[in-house]
Recover the amino acids of this structure.
């Protein structure tokens, strides 16, 4: 099936990234702040030094790539909403996660968020066709801060029948989340078969793993809960500023995380994941609309495919600081490109201000826009039937296909129709553009000098045309 | 070098299009309404039916033509600094538009018929704009004799830019010969023009699979004179091509191969650029639908076919406005399609300054399209992936969990590796629709009120709540 995909690396460059990543793991290693996990890796052939830097041999990386499942299902409370990955066309999209404020739907004012708000986001995500799985969108501030992850997870599962993806920062928390989900599916064995939630576990770039998170990861691997190893390699901050260096760092972290999961429980479901981008060199913040974002994402998706790993790369959501689309076309373009990379999962719906805030109306905007953008990521069948040589023959040279039955029979299948009603939302209504463009055009016309053509050549040319006109007229 | 490209077909699918195109040319053939060109192809080995004017082209002849067509070329400009080498390895060269029939007057903002002076103004502004790599002739000169308007347009363009010129009007063989004479004046003689393509022309086949008498004879003249011919197929899904995407690709590819055969038969080694402006028709209006979601997919498929044959190509499009007023009136998803078509690996694309489905032009639109393009094209910056850029040594130096910000490697490379957009140009593209947030709020309120989430069993909810409570107690004791 023909599917549009954004590619960045050539085959040799992919191989190079792999070789260099193995070198990173063999020579530089990863820093694992858990004695327990470091020891577990040592027992399987890794080397651990006195500072808990673990160097991983290539053989262990290869073995982990082999033992991890290439396909699995992110199950949902409602099985009709199960997500089978890898995808064949458009990725599955989630809301954004754990923002710290929201815009109140009634007052339009910023405020901190509660469990009730989270339930509203979950419910909305459950209802919208453009949302496939759920990240607990806002932080619950009305519960004890030591257990907010647990409450968020539970509230999400109760208020959304789609797959839930969350995180966890200690092994005890992880065990409890497994227990809660087991209640819903009817036991831990059932949960292993039907994981209704999965977990994002971020290594700390460059190349280190926090104690709580990595121990939680081991628990999840044992329970059959899929882990997304989200590398946040930020070019120029937590990774080299070069694109190649950023990609290697993120790839190496993903391979290390894969090894941890596979050593803990061979065959544990694992998702290759990047949330990597350059920092804004002026402010030091993550630059979500950096032009490099799609390159990094495309490279990540290519590496994931190379390893046969399902992937979660990039983000989807066009919110700025307030609900709506306040970014310029160009700021939005990188998001659009990231969803075309072949990634299987993408979070981000409903976020504002670089994932610090969220709004329910932004969830609607992002989800609706996504339904239209999906039109660009479809499969097309290429065979004798769709090639339609017989139809071309029947229609004949220079004639029209409009009235041929082949057109009516295939039109709905082959052509995508944007939702007209929603279209009016997306228009770019900048009112400064045209007057400014006019001023620039006037300035260029009065000031720009075009290098001149030799006068005699102009005359010869003019004469040629005049003669031709005369000859044509006298014919 | 690593560069971002939109790919669409897998290898088997490319092969299918190739195989079926050969079958199409061999069994259905193309209709060529010129006795001269039919004779030429007959002599070269094609099967010609003079009564129906249908030529069936054997595969061997197509393969031979593809072998002879040049794989690389330079499109020359009056100022050699503006020469264009194709194929490109990063972003495509982008040009202005052709043949609009009206201009929005820059002073009054009103529509009026376009003149030679307007063409001169459009071309002059294009000459100054960084985002424009070559010029088309923008507008129709409506005040000159109709038979020679193409000559006036080409000549005006030559005088008002030192960039490469692409002509869009071909009247007949005699007109082509005059265009060649004008080009020779710029090149410094007809022999020079043969060596250096100082202009290109766009030749349109008539989909499906037909060539008009005058245009195809002109194509032969241009091929002989060394002028690069851009062989544009306008295969409109559901109109002039099958509605299926595969069938549209097949039709456009077959027409390009037929054009290539005609050019190469006329003059072995003639410069040919594989070209398409294909997209579905709008099923409601029957008009050409450039903003359709299928357009970039068709462009990606055809760019892959052109690469397969080693031919430079022009399959993308960069016109951001099909309305009658300047600005960026299209919706997000429509504009996205246009942007995607530029990332397919196409070497050239026209469209800057166009309005109203190429019927009109405005100079301020030219500025808008060129400015947006300068920022968008940066997405196609090539990156070096090598031992040096991979920076294994730097990762080692920085160490686990530390920052690269203060490392010399960052300071030394960030200007090269991190693309910076022009914020002034970005500012005037902001999406300021104010309808969406209010309407979205209504929808969110309605869903919250009416949508019912499948509820969980009450006892399970209770058990879960208890688990959390006990865990908290346990944590607080610690």
């Amino acid at each position: 099936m023909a599917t549009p995909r954004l590619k960045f690396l050539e085959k040799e460059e992919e191989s190079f990234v792999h070789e260099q990543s193995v070198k990173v793991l063999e020579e530089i290693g990863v820093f694992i702040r858990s004695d327990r996990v470091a020891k577990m890796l040592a027992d399987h052939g890794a080397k651990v030094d006195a500072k808990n830097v673990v160097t991983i041999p290539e053989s262990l990386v290869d073995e982990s790539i082999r033992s991890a499942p290439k396909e699995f299902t992110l199950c949902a409370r409602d099985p009709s909403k199960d997500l089978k990955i890898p995808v064949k066309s458009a990725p599955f999209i989630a809301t954004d996660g754990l923002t710290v404020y929201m815009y109140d739907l009634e007052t339009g004012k910023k405020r901190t968020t509660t469990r009730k708000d989270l339930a509203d986001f979950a419910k909305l995500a459950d209802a919208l066709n453009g949302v496939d799985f759920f990240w607990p969108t806002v932080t619950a501030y009305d519960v004890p801060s030591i257990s907010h992850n647990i409450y968020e997870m539970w509230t999400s599962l109760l208020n959304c029948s789609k797959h839930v993806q969350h995180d966890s920062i200690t092994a005890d928390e992880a065990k409890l989340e497994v227990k809660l989900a087991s209640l819903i599916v009817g036991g831990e064995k059932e949960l292993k078969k039907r994981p209704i939630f999965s977990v994002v576990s971020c290594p700390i770039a460059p190349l280190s793993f926090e104690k709580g998170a990595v121990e939680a990861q081991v628990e999840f691997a044992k329970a059959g809960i899929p882990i997304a190893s989200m590398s946040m390699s930020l070019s120029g901050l937590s990774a080299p500023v070069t694109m190649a260096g950023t990609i290697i760092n993120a790839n190496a972290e993903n391979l290390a995380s894969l090894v941890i999961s596979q050593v803990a429980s061979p065959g544990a479901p694992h998702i290759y994941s990047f949330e990597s981008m350059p920092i804004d060199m002026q402010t030091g913040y993550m630059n979500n609309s950096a032009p490099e974002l799609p390159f990094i994402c495309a490279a990540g998706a290519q590496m994931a495919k190379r390893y046969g790993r399902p992937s979660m790369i990039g983000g989807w959501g066009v919110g700025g600081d307030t609900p709506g689309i306040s970014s310029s076309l160009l700021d939005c373009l990188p998001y659009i490109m990231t969803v075309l990379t072949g990634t299987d999962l993408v979070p981000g719906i409903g976020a504002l201000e670089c994932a610090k805030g969220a709004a329910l109306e932004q969830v609607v905007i992002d989800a609706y826009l996504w339904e239209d953008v999906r039109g660009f990521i479809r499969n097309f069948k290429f065979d004798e039937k769709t090639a339609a040589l017989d139809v071309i023959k029947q229609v004949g040279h220079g004639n029209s296909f409009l009235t041929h039955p082949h057109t009516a029979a295939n039109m709905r299948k082959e052509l995508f129709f944007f939702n007209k009603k929603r279209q009016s939302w997306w228009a770019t209504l900048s009112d400064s553009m045209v007057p400014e463009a006019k001023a620039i055009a006037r300035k260029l016309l009065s000031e720009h000098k075009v290098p001149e053509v030799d006068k005699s050549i102009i005359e010869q040319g003019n004469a040629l045309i005049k003669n031709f006109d005369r000859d044509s007229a006298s014919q | 070098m690593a560069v971002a490209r939109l790919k669409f077909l897998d290898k088997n699918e490319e092969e299918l299009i190739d195989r079926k195109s050969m079958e199409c040319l061999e069994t259905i053939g193309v209709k060529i309404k010129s006795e001269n060109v039919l004779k030429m192809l007959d002599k070269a080995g094609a099967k010609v039916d003079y009564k129906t004017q249908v030529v069936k082209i054997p595969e061997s002849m197509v393969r031979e033509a593809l072998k002879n067509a040049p794989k690389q070329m330079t499109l020359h400009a009056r100022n050699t600094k503006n020469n264009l080498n194709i194929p490109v390895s990063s972003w495509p060269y982008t040009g202005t538009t052709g043949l609009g029939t009206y201009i929005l007057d820059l002073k009054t903002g009103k529509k009026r018929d376009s003149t030679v002076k307007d063409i001169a103004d459009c071309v002059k502004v294009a000459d100054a704009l960084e985002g424009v790599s070559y010029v088309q002739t923008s507008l129709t000169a409506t005040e000159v004799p109709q038979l020679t308007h193409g000559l006036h347009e080409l000549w005006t363009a030559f005088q008002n830019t030192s960039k490469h010129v692409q002509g869009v009007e071909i009247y007949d063989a005699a007109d082509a010969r005059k265009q060649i004479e004008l080009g020779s004046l710029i090149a410094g003689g007809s022999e020079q023009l043969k060596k250096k393509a100082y202009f290109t022309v766009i030749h349109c086949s008539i989909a499906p699979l037909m060539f008009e008498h005058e245009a195809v004879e002109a194509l032969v003249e241009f091929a002989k004179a060394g002028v690069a011919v851009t062989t544009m197929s306008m295969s409109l899904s559901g109109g002039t091509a099958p509605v299926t995407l595969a069938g549209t690709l097949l039709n456009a590819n077959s027409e390009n191969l037929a054009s290539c055969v005609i050019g190469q038969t006329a003059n072995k080694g003639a410069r040919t650029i594989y070209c398409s402006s294909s997209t579905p028709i709008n099923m409601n209006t029957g008009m050409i639908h450039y903003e359709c979601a299928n357009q970039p997919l068709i462009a990606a498929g055809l760019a892959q076919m052109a690469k397969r044959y080693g031919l430079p190509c022009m399959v993308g499009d960069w016109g951001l406005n099909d309305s009658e007023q300047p600005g960026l009136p299209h919706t997000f998803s429509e504009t996205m399609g246009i942007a995607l078509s530029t990332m397919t690996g196409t070497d050239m694309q026209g469209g800057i300054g166009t309005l109203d489905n190429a019927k009109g032009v405005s100079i301020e639109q030219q500025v808008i399209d060129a400015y947006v393009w300068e920022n968008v094209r940066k997405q196609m910056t090539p990156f070096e992936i090598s031992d040096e850029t991979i920076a294994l040594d730097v990762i080692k130096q920085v160490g686990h969990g530390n920052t690269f910000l203060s490392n010399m490697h960052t300071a030394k490379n960030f200007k090269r590796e991190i693309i910076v957009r022009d914020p002034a140009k970005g500012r005037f593209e902001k999406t300021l629709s104010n309808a969406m947030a209010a309407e979205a709020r209504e929808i969110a309120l309605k869903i919250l009120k009416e949508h019912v989430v499948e509820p969980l069993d009450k006892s399970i909810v209770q058990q879960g709540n208890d688990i959390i409570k006990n865990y908290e107690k346990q944590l607080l004791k610690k």
User: Anything to note?
Assistant: The radius of gyration of chain A is 27 Å. Residues 381-421 of chain A form one domain.
